[in-house]
Structure formats: structure tokens, C-alpha cells
Amino acid sequence: MADAAVNRTGGGTGGRTQRVLIAADKFKGTLTAVQVAERVAAGLRRVAPEVEVTALPVADGGDGTVDAAVAAGFERHEVRVAGPLGDEVTAAFALRDGTAVVEIAEASGLQRLPAGVLAPLTSSTYGSGELLRAALDAGARTIVFGVGGSATTDGGAGMLAALGARFLDADGEPVPPGGGSLGDVATADLTGLDPRLPAVDVVLASDVDNPLTGSKGAAAVYGPQKGASPDDVATLDAGLAHFAAVLEGAIGGRAAEYAAAPGAGAAGGIGYGALVGLGAGFRPGIEVMLDVLGFAAAVERATLVITGEGSLDGQTLHGKAPAGVAAAARAAGKEVVAVCGRLALAPEALGRAGIRRAYPLTEVEPDVARCLADAGPILEQVAERIAQDFLR
Fold this sequence. Notes:
By secondary structure, the protein is α/β, with parallel strands linked by helices. About 35% of the residues lie in helices and about 20% in strands. The protein is elongated, with a radius of gyration of 22 Å.
């Protein structure tokens, strides 16, 4: 580490003040991104009290995206909307200067289901549509729509219905909520969609690029995580395909093009609903969020960037927050290290991603159960090690 080490007395090589940018995602189930930043900062300052620390909690479009925006200075707005099973919940979006950050997990996420309950066939995105409408009501001109952590596989039908679309069965009645009912859709009418939508720039922010249907589609890849049995997966995939076919009859060939587009399968197909009904454009979630959060300006002043998430593994390299942070920091010529609960990447893979070294909690405490129970204090110890290696 000698080639990366700097003087802890604030001078470093060439007398530079050491400035650390903490841009980490949450440790899912243990620490929020804000808490990760707080704990890392505390550990760094115990070893290098003079270091300048800037916290910029990040997210890739999944749960925690709104919290990251609020931590960066956005205003939090709360509204009562339908949860995935129709029960009312309090959900939030973030707003600043006409840009709203909305995440599906706030209204339609797995955490909104009752404890121990999974409902892969009946969970609906209706509440996410209500949340989008609330952002429009608040004056949003740009909406960053983060899609991850959903309980749903309804192709965005519920979301579109909340915004004015109509999906009717053969008897002319509205189809019940949930992906299990998509096979009953006989007609689709998008003409009643909120008239403000065409004037709003909607960005579909996702860390996955799956198509809507098929072996790499929403139901096959993500349905089992939401409690779908093999029979449920088949029902949901067939329903999504039928839904896209009905929409093709309603609005033309672009409906089929959107079904095959990257991101259509995100969050149980709500990506498809956003593309086909909201006029959304797809971008990798972490890229969008780094822009929204002002990462470029923050990293410019940094001499070291610390990123991370709960598990650094193969998924990290495919659009997750730490990989995005590392790529952007490397482009700016900055050194990057990572913190994590669990490390499942070889040093070579980390290096290719632009991460100089990773510091897992298990390096301090091998007992995984203790790492989960005491993640905060252990993370502070990990940060002390980073300070000893890079800030002295």
C-alpha cells in the first residue's frame, strides 16, 4: 500500500489536504446508505482527525434511492398511496428544482407486504402510479423513476391504471390487480393517461436490462424472488406476453419493440409500462443517480473515494452502485476502495472494476451473525483500517 499511502498530518505527498468522498450504497438489511457513510466517517476520523470527509450516499434505483436524494439536499414529500395489496401506505418521493426522484419500492416494494406474505400473482403497482401522479402535482418536470425491489410482476398495468389507462376484460370490466390477471386483458386504452406526461422527461433508472418476457424476462428471472412457483412463473410470463400483444393492438408495433427493449423487464415489467405508457428513456440507475446527486463536482475535490454495499459479488459488476461509482471516480483519476459486509470478488476482478482494495466486515469479525448484528461498530473498525492504509 506504500504507493497509495499519504501523510495523515494533512499534507500527504506534496502537502495536499486529504479529502475523502464516501459514496456507498446501503448494506441491505443492516445499514442504510446514510448510516454507512456516518460509520465510515467516524472510523476515519479516529485515525485521521484532520481529514475532510464528504458523504454522498448513493443508490442504483432500488430501495433507498429516495433516501439518497434527500441526503443530497432534495426535499422529502410523503403521500398516502396503495401498497402492493391495496392497503394504504405512506410513501415518499424527493423533489428539488423541478426534478423528482420516485422509487417503486416506496409504494410497491417487497417491504410493503405484510411480514411473511408474498403475493406474486396479485401484487400491483397501482400505488407507484399514484406516487408518480403526486410528483406531477408537486410540479416535477423531470422524473427519475427508480425501479428495483418490487413485489410485483404486473407489467406496470397497475401504475398505468392509476395514471388514467384502462384495461378491460372480455365483459368490459376492469381486470383485477396483479400479474396473474394480465391474461384476462381484452382491451387496452391509454388515451386517458395523465395529459401532463408528454411534457415531462421520465427517466427509467434501473440496474437491470432484462426484456419483458422469455427466459431472461421479468417473470423467469425475478418472479421466484417474489414467491412465484414454477407454475406461477409460467402464468406470469404468459400474462406479460398477452399484455404486450393487447397493447400492440392498441398503439401499434412500438409496443412489441418496447417489450424487447433493455429494462422492459425491470421490477416485474414496470419498466415496460414506463417505456410504453410514460415515454420513459432507459438509463443505468447508478449513472442517473450520480448525475442527480452531483457526484462529478464532489469527486473533483476528493483524494480518495470510498464506495461499497452489503455484498461485493458478481452482481456488483453488472450495474450496481459500487461499480458505477468506481468507474466514474476512475475516469476522474481518483483512487477507490470499497467497504462491504461480504466479499466474493477476486482482487483481479476488483481491479478491473477500478477498485484498489475491498474491506469486508468479515475481515474484522469472521462470525457472519455478529457482522449482521453489529454492522455499524464493525464498519467503523474497517474504516480505521482504511485510514491507516491510505491516510497516514
